[in-house]
């Protein structure tokens, strides 16, 4: 079991002057690491399975076992409303969260949840790291054989739609389909070219279903290629605005000053929109109060004049980038 976990640690950085690990046993490799940086998505939450949570905290236990410094970069945490049978996991979480040098929460809700339940001294608030920094050299993070494959789009006014399969569960499926029907109708009337983009393999079927259901709309196109983060960062720049139910794609769009219609669920979406002054364009689609007519009204505001939102996003982004979670590496002198 330990060997399996070691093979899949979230992110491991090794100093450049170290020798190549070659064919060493994975436990030997991990024991020689200088630093472990966790860049997970929201995993410590009652929305995840116990197996996923245990996997997450086991990675921290491995770092502790080998005395490897660990930094948990900005991510979402909570809620922690476990049932009686699952409550034991809270003790396991509390016992290990003291180990990382720092744990960054990217939203206030998660910070309050973590501090309220665990009272951690190593807990800090920081905005999502993708919002703050785009200054990386591709050859430093990708093989020299890597070549981004960016899908072609038209030269017209383009809009990207990024669905999330979670919005199409049994309870909300019909309502979500009706919402997208109204979105597609508004975009067709506005003569926008629409590209349905798959963010993850699990979303491909719903992307195909949407494209097929509205295939009579000649302006709708399906991007069947699942883009990696580098490709998506390049691809997103081709769009006037984005309609997304995935948090990371919203962040990537904002980083490029592209307006977003956020159709997600949870505090992380709400706080992200507030951070960029985009509250009126954020909707929790998994609540009983949700109304798709409000989404269409917000969409029409973007259609009329996206530059207003773009200017506000750009202004807010300048202030956000003055201080970042990356300063932790200076503190660690690494």
Describe the secondary-structure layout.
Blueprint: H1 2-6, E1 12-13, H2 26-31, E2 35-38, H3 50-65, E3 70-75, H4 88-96, E4 102-105, H5 108-118, E5 123-125, H6 129-132, H7 138-141, E6 158-162, H8 173-189, E7 193-197, H9 204-213, E8 220-223, H10 229-235, E9 241-244, H11 247-255, E10 260-262, H12 267-275, H13 292-304, H14 306-320, H15 328-331
Helix pairs in contact: 3-4, 8-13
Describe the structure.
- This protein is α/β, with parallel strands linked by helices.
- Helices cover 42% and strands 12% of the residues.
- It is built from 15 helices and ten strands.
- The chain has a five-stranded mixed β-sheet with strand order 1-2-3-4-5. A five-stranded parallel β-sheet has the order 8-7-6-9-10, sandwiched between helices.
- Helix 8 links the parallel strand 6 and strand 7.
- The longest helix has 17 residues.
- It is globular and about 60 Å long.
- The two termini are 31 Å apart.
- The N terminus is likely disordered.
Task: Throw out a few tags for this protein.
disordered N terminus, five-stranded mixed β-sheet, 42% helix
Summarize it.
By secondary structure, this protein is α/β, with parallel strands linked by helices. The protein has 15 helices and ten strands.
């Amino acid at each position: 079991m330990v060997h399996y976990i070691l093979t899949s640690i979230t992110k491991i950085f090794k100093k450049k002057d170290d020798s190549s690990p070659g064919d060493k046993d994975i436990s030997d490799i991990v024991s020689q690491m200088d630093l472990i940086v966790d860049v997970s998505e929201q995993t410590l939450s009652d929305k995840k399975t116990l197996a996923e949570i245990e996997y997450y905290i086991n990675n921290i236990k491995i770092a502790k076992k080998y005395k490897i410094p660990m930094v948990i970069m900005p991510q979402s945490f909570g809620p922690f409303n476990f049932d009686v049978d699952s409550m034991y996991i809270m003790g396991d979480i509390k016992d290990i969260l003291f180990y990382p040098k720092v744990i960054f929460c990217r939203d206030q809700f998660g910070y309050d949840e973590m501090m309220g339940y665990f009272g951690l001294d190593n807990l800090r608030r920081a905005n999502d790291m993708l919002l703050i920094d785009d200054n990386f050299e591709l050859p430093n993070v990708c093989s020299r054989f890597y070549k981004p494959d960016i899908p072609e789009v038209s030269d017209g006014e383009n809009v990207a739609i990024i669905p999330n399969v979670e919005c199409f569960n049994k309870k909300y499926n019909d309502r979500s389909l009706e919402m997208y029907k109204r979105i597609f109708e508004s975009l067709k009337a506005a003569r926008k070219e629409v590209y349905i983009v798959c963010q993850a393999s699990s979303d491909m079927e719903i992307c195909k279903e949407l494209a097929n259901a509205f295939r009579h709309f000649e302006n709708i196109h399906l991007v069947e290629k699942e883009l990696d983060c580098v490709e998506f960062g390049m691809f997103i720049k081709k769009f006037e605005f984005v309609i997304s139910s995935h948090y990371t794609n919203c962040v990537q769009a904002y980083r490029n000053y592209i307006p977003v219609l956020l159709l997600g669920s949870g505090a992380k979406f709400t706080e992200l929109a507030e951070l960029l002054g985009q509250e009126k364009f954020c909707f929790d689609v998994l609540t009983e109060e949700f109304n798709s007519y409000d989404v269409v009204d917000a969409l029409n505001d973007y259609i009329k004049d996206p530059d207003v939102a773009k200017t506000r996003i750009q202004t807010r982004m300048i202030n956000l980038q003055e201080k970042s979670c990356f300063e932790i590496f200076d503190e660690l002198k690494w």
